[in-house]
Automatic annotation (TrEMBL):
Organism: Microbulbifer echini
InterPro entries: AraC-type_N (IPR032687), Homeodomain-like_sf (IPR009057), HTH_AraC (IPR018060)
PANTHER family: HTH-TYPE TRANSCRIPTIONAL REGULATOR GADX (PTHR47894)
Domain HTH araC/xylS-type: 239-337
A Pfam short name: HTH_18
Organism lineage: Bacteria, Pseudomonadati, Pseudomonadota, Gammaproteobacteria, Cellvibrionales
Protein name in UniProt: AraC family transcriptional regulator ligand-binding domain-containing protein
Length: 358
């Protein structure tokens, strides 16, 4: 298994090293990385090479928090490798599940895990542990700086995805003792050392927090993702349309005309091609909205106004009318019914588990 990360995650490396009176090129060459690749932010780099680079930089520049400083310099570039996950996700929970799946697949092969433990959800980072197992027994590298860099990049990514309302409960690090004094200033929450896993601890309720698709810093991801969709070919037209609907709904741009524009075709051409597959665009959009509405209404959050926005409705009244058409009642009553059904199901499962134990 060769763990890879996008070179875009070294955005800001040249500027940071220069600010610290170091030579970016010399550090890159000593870590067997082509400086031109980092200058152009092109392609992928092995995680072992990046770990060596960040460790060397911290040591040679006498900068104990280099990993976190480099993470902070990323900005929206921290999401660069997760454009598909961002643009298909309307909530933090959906994004995390999509990101875990995407990062675990080639070319990344980075193991990240999402586990729910009561009222808290743990986002566990196993990437550095896996890297340490792959290193030769006589390796000098103890990639603590890279551990902090990857965890720091993850925080920056989530902050750009969810906005200023995003908040962790705490951070767990396997590092036995602090390398510097800036952890809580960076993460904004308590940081616990010597833990079983590197992990973010989140309140499980925060997984329903909506992503900020309208954030201007995320628009380049939309453009890149649409370009990737268009390269998939005619055979996946329906999938392209569905994914574009997911992406464009929160921007209130999920009309037939807008989707056709993104696909570079006349709207009548798109209608005809869907009709050839016995599909109607308006039915696809309505089905996706209903499925998403049912998902969001199954919990206490998000608020009705946010659900309406995430489904692409310009007015709350339009969402209310759609709920009457889908479910025969108001959104609030649907939420109560769905939550009651979920509570009954959980109670039945708990009772069955108790009987099994007895």
């Amino acid at each position: 298994m060769t763990q890879q990360i996008r070179t875009t995650l070294l955005t800001g490396f040249y500027e940071l090293v220069s600010q610290l009176k170091g030579s970016p090129e010399a550090l890159l060459i000593s870590s067997r990385i082509n400086p031109h690749q980092v200058e152009s932010l092109d392609g992928y780099l092995g995680l072992d090479l990046v770990a060596d680079l960040v460790d060397r930089a911290a040591t040679q520049l006498n900068c104990s928090d280099f990993g976190l400083r480099l993470a902070y310099s990323q900005g929206a570039a921290a999401l660069g490798s997760l454009g598909a996950a961002v643009l298909q996700s309307l909530t933090l929970g959906e994004f995390l599940n999509a990101a875990v799946k995407q990062l675990g697949s080639p070319p990344y092969d980075l193991r990240v895990e999402l586990t729910k433990k009561g009222r808290y959800t743990h986002l566990n980072f196993h990437c550095i542990d896996d890297l340490e197992h792959l290193l030769p027994s006589d390796s000098h590298l103890a990639p603590q700086q890279c551990r902090e860099f990857l965890v720091g990049v993850s925080l920056v990514a989530l902050q750009h995805l969810c906005g200023s309302n995003f908040q962790l409960e705490s951070v767990h690090l396997k590092t036995e003792r602090p390398l510097h004094e800036y952890y809580e200033n960076f993460f904004g929450v308590p940081v616990h050392f010597g833990q079983e896993n590197d992990a973010f601890i989140l309140n499980s309720g925060s997984l329903l927090q909506p992503t900020e698709k309208c954030n201007p810093s995320l628009r380049p991801l939309l453009k890149t993702y649409i370009e990737e969709l268009l390269q998939q070919g005619e055979t996946s037209l329906v999938k392209q349309v569905q994914q574009l609907i997911y992406c464009l709904m929160p921007l209130k741009r999920s009309s037939l005309q807008e989707v056709a524009n993104q696909l570079g075709m006349h709207k009548r051409t798109l209608q005809r091609r869907l009709r050839d597959r016995e599909l109607v665009f308006e039915d696809l959009l309505d089905r996706i909205r209903r499925e998403r509405a049912e998902f969001y209404l199954s919990g206490k959050q998000p608020p009705m106004s946010q659900i309406s926005d995430m489904l692409g409705y310009r007015e709350q009244s339009s969402f209310n009318r759609a709920c009457y058409r889908w479910f025969g009642t108001t959104p609030m009553r649907i939420r109560r019914q769905l939550m009651a059904q979920l509570a009954e199901k959980e109670a039945a499962e708990a009772e069955q588990a108790l009987e099994t134990v007895e």
